[in-house]
Every structure is written in structure tokens, then in C-alpha cells.
Design goal:
Layout: H1 15-34, H2 41-48, H3 52-80, H4 82-99, H5 106-116, H6 122-133, H7 139-170, H8 175-200, H9 209-214, H10 227-234, H11 237-268, H12 272-284, H13 289-304, H14 306-328, H15 333-357, H16 366-391, H17 394-408, H18 410-414, H19 419-430
Domain Major facilitator superfamily (MFS) profile: 19-420
Transmembrane segments: 21-43, 55-73, 85-103, 109-128, 149-171, 177-198, 239-264, 270-289, 310-328, 334-358, 365-388, 400-419
Membrane topology: Multi-pass membrane protein
Length: 435
């Protein structure tokens, strides 16, 4: 069985489509858990009497450890296969997700928030798994759709977590225990998802890596395992260009997830529920916008090749940077929401266009490529967190980020593919693949 050359959206009858649906579902649950604390921060702030500096530390911690785990998890997919990697991450990640509900001090909350960041590495496995399951003509769409639908978990968390807490309060639970009870939900969902992923997926169209290796079958995407995969990826300049662009789009995305609700509360005096709904609208764009970015990338590549994918990414990042500047200077909550939706659309599409390029950078070191570029997103988020801590003003931080994103779009222009890259891509696209 070979890579699929189409996405049969309403089918679970093939290994490719089971991987497609279970990867986005697993990523959705992980993203939901990753940002479940963010919309509750106005309440948690009062619970622990947090200072602005402590809140900044919590936001940085939420994304910092993901950098390291993303770098590790990509080569682990090459070595052990995405099925084992995802199941292990879901099981291990559930521990701090549940643990944060029992934090009693700022220090313990910060510790668990730091560990929760590890579940952000789920993105790398999601992109890896769809990359080995789908052919070049649809891989950009498959990568963007699974990542986008998974990313929507962050938006859902923004809207659902305040409602979950409100439901707990209606049941008579005190506010101090209400947010804690609400935070148990994503941890339980991760345990359920781990069981489903282990039961119903396999590493690649032909089967699981360990079984194939035992049978003497060569695995292209997992040929370079572990450190060799990382070194091969790190030697490719295009990886580092995409590292920067992904930091400027996905890094901004998760930064907005962390600060949006509290920004609307502090800057526009919205209620917790209203702020959660406003912030959720940004995350819910991922339901279609990231997939749209990957889909458009696939279409322009059919007409103009791999370099057209890079040019498209440049255009999308320009739109993101200019839209972010508009959001930073919006004078009313209505204007802010409209601006957020506009720049959010370009942000999600840029994320999709970035990972539409990933499968073509180095197919024999796919795990290393996906891991390094994925880590770039979190480096961007951490940098944004330190920027806000240094400036001490969210609005100024958003303005500066808008300028930096616009400049970083030039990295997309620097990505160019050689004639041999293009011929290799064409050969894969013309090869016989199964539906």
C-alpha cells in the first residue's frame, strides 16, 4: 500500500484516513489542554495574587519547554514511529494537565504550566504522520487541515473553559474549586485519546516501523533515525528560513491565545465570558484558514512548482504583519475583533503554507525537519513573551510584533529550490499512489 493521492474526508476505511482523522483529533485535545488555563487567567490571577511579571512568566513557561520537546519528538518519530510517539506524549502530558488543577501556590502552578508545554509537541507528530500517509499532490492540504482543525482546540478552550467553570459554580462548587474542576476535563480527554490512537492507527501505509524493519523493509521517512535525522535537517538552510517564518506566524498565534482573553478584559473591560468568546473567534479560524493555506499552496505548486509555495508564504506573512499592526491600534472592541479576525486569517494561512513546504525540504530526514521548524513556532512565542515582559505593555508588544512579522516575511523569499529538488518533486507527484 502506498501514499494516498486523495483525501476521502468521510472515510475511515484506510490507514491513511484513520491517521488523518485521529491526528487532528489528538492534536485538538492536546491544543485544548495546552491553552485551557489561558481563558481562566483573570480568575487564577486573583486566586494567587499574581503580578504582571508573574503572569508573563506563566505565559513564557507555557511555550518554553515545547521548543526542546519538539526538537526531540521529530527524530523520535523517525526512530519509533508516530503511533508510539503520539501515544506516549498523550499519556505523559496528561499528568501535568491534571496536576495544574491541584496547584496551591504560584510556584507550583508555574511548574505544572511549564510541563504542560510539552503537549505542544503533538503538532510535530501530527504533521509527520500525515506527511508519510499522503502523496505530494494533497500533502499540503492534509497537513494544513489536520493542523488547522487541531489548532481549533485552542479557540474552543477559550470559549468552553469559562463555560465549564460557570457550570461548576452553578452546581454549587466554590470559585476556588470551580476553575480546578474545569481543568480536570482536558486531562481525562488526553487519556481517552491515547487509547484510541494506539488502537486504531499505524505508522505508515505499509504498517508499523518496528514490524517493517524486522521484515527488512526500507522506510524512506524513517531511514535516518534520531540524531542523524536532526543533523541532516540542521544542515539545510531552508529549514532555518522556515524556522523563522513559523516563529513569526505560529509563535504569534500561540502568543495571542495566551494574552487575548486577559487583553480584552483589561483593555476593553469585557466580562470573562465575553472576552473568552472574542478570543475564541481567533482560534476558531483554524477550522478552515490553515487548511485553506495548505490547499492554495498545493494549487499554486501545480502551476508553478515549489518556489511558488514560498512566494505564497511571503504574501500571507505580509498580510499577517499589517493586520497585527491594525489590531494593536484598534480603538474599540468591535474594531479590535474585526482586526483580529483579519490578521488571524493570514496568520493561520501562513502556518498552513509553511507546513505545505515541509515535506519537500528533505524527505529522508522528515522528523528532523518537522521538529526544528515546529520548534521555531515556540521560539517565536517565547520571544514574544519576553518582549512583552520587557516592554510591560501589551499594546506596544503587539505593535512591535507587527513590524517584526512584516520583516520576517523576507525569509520566505529566500527559500528557493534547485532543479534537482523540483525534478524529485515531480517524480513523486507522477508516481503511482493508492487512493
Amino acid at each position: 500500500m502506498s501514499k494516498s493521492n486523495r483525501i476521502a474526508l468521510f472515510s475511515l476505511g484506510t490507514p491513511q484516513m484513520r491517521a488523518f482523522h485521529l491526528t487532528w483529533m489528538a492534536f485538538f485535545v492536546c491544543f485544548f489542554a495546552w491553552f485551557a488555563c489561558a481563558p481562566l487567567m483573570p480568575v487564577i490571577k486573583g486566586e494567587f495574587h499574581l503580578t504582571p511579571g508573574q503572569i508573563a512568566n506563566i505565559n513564557i513557561a507555557a511555550v518554553a519547554v515545547t521548543i526542546l520537546v519538539r526538537l526531540i519528538i521529530g527524530p523520535m518519530c523517525d526512530r519509533f514511529g508516530p503511533r508510539k510517539a503520539y501515544t506516549g506524549l498523550l499519556l505523559a502530558g496528561a499528568v501535568p494537565v491534571i496536576g495544574v488543577a491541584f496547584a496551591q501556590t504560584y510556584e507550583s502552578f508555574l511548574f505544572f504550566r511549564l510541563l504542560i508545554g510539552a503537549v505542544g509537541a503533538s503538532f510535530v507528530i501530527t504533521q509527520y504522520h500525515t506527511s508519510v500517509m499522503f502523496a505530494p499532490n494533497v500533502v499540503g492540504t492534509a497537513n494544513a487541515a489536520t493542523a488547522g482543525w487541531g489548532n481549533a482546540g485552542g479557540g474552543v478552550a477559550q470559549g468552553v473553559m469559562p463555560l465549564l467553570m460557570a457550570a461548576m459554580l452553578m452546581l454549587g462548587v466554590s470559585q476556588g474549586w470551580g476553575w480546578r474542576a474545569a481543568l480536570l476535563v482536558p486531562g481525562v480527554l488526553m487519556l481517552v485519546m491515547a487509547a484510541l490512537y494506539w488502537r486504531f492507527t499505524q505508522d505508515c501505509p505499509e504498517g508499523n516501523y518496528d514490524e517493517l524493519r524486522a521484515a527488512g523493509v526500507t522506510i524512506e521517512s524513517g531511514k535516518r533515525g534520531g540524531w542523524a535525522s536532526f543533523r541532516a535537517a540542521a544542515a539545510n538552510y531552508r529549514v532555518w528560513m522556515l524556522f523563522i517564518t513559523y516563529g513569526a506566524c505560529f509563535g504569534v498565534e500561540i502568543f495571542i491565545h495566551n494574552i487575548a482573553a486577559i487583553y480584552y478584559v483589561d483593555h476593553f473591560q469585557l466580562s470573562l465570558e465575553s472576552a473568552g468568546i472574542a478570543a475564541a473567534s481567533f482560534g476558531l479560524l483554524a477550522l478552515f484558514a490553515r487548511a485553506l493555506g495548505g490547499y492554495i499552496s498545493d494549487k499554486v505548486a501545480l502551476r508553478g512548482g515549489l518556489n511558488r509555495r514560498a512566494t505564497l508564504l511571503f504574501v500571507m506573512m505580509l498580510g499577517e504583519g499589517l493586520g497585527l499592526l491594525w489590531f494593536a491600534h484598534a480603538g474599540s472592541v468591535v474594531a479590535a475583533v474585526i482586526a483580529m479576525l483579519c490578521f488571524g486569517l493570514f496568520t493561520h494561512m501562513a502556518c498552513g503554507a509553511t507546513y505545505a513546504l515541509v515535506p519537500f525540504i528533505d524527505r529522508k530526514a522528515l522528523g528532523g525537519v518537522a521538529g526544528i521548524i515546529g520548534a521555531g513556532g515556540n521560539v517565536g512565542a517565547v520571544a514574544a513573551g519576553f518582549l512583552m515582559k520587557g516592554l510591560g505593555n501589551t499594546q506596544q508588544t503587539l505593535s512591535m510584533l507587527g513590524v517584526l512579522v512584516t520583516i520576517s516575511a523576507l525569509c520566505a523569499v529566500a527559500i528557493r529550490f534547485t532543479a534537482s529538488d523540483k525534478s524529485g518533486d515531480a517524480a513523486l507527484a507522477d508516481s503511482k499512489v493508492a487512493a
